[in-house]
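Could you join me in thinking about how sequence relates to backbone shape in a protein? We need material for that, and I hope you will provide a protein of your own picking. Label the sequence line and the structure token line clearly, so we can match residues to local backbone shapes. Would you write everything just below, so we can both look at the same thing?
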Amino acid sequence: MGEVRVCVMRIEGTNREEDAQAAFEAAGADQVELVHLKQLAHEDTVPTDLHRNLDDYQILFIPGGFSAGDAVRAGAIWAARIRADLGDQIERFVESGRLVGGVCNGFQVLLELGCLPGWAGTLPDEPEAALMPNDIGRFQCRFVELRRESETPCAWLAEVPSENMLVPIAHGEGKFALAPDTAEEGLKRLESAGQVTFRYVRPDGSPADGEFPYNPNGSLSDIAGICNEKGNVFGMMPHPENVIHPMQSPDWTRRERKAYGLPLFESAVRYARGL
């Protein structure tokens, strides 16, 4: 079994990179590095001891935050910089079967890049889905109930149980959407390929059916996360890296809670160790 090295990418405005680092370390990764985009992209201007090569890692993770202040729209500037500076490296990384994950701002980045849902290739010319402003019209920061889909090729979910998960959200642009003229067809394609990974649900596990606050942003078909068809690229809006200990649940002193987010990172590490 091989060593698992994780690259947690960051730029100006990210704020969950240390949370992600702690999650991967708790999941058993051998080395987790916080790496600025410039360390990967500009070998000629970065000191030799700071330069990093994406090919040296088995997992690439894009964390949450407000990259570049979410100017233009959430994740757009970070995605444009990745495409310009790391496009070829990202394509090789994804097509080799290695894991890429993105949470919140990272999910927005992967959609802007077109890595998700990935129907037109790893880095298509235009996005195929989007995360739009929440229907409620304001930022949401609280816990929501999620449930994983039972049929999915997503490597990140292999150890995630099929039960409700209480996971925090913190976003103003989290409404998953497909182009209106192809939304019905696109949703069928996502579902038939098992690309829907998580959905927002009610506390009893029944569908949120778009109802606020159970669906906090108005996402199409209550979608909280998706993967590509191969299952190695994954993104979601809620923050599993912030529930890797039971005591991180808001009511842990009143009822039994689990480390809901940890199995996701354990799944990724176990998969990467077998590459």
About this structure: The mean pLDDT is 96. The first helix runs from residue 17 to 26. The CA atoms of residues 178 and 187 lie 8 Å apart.
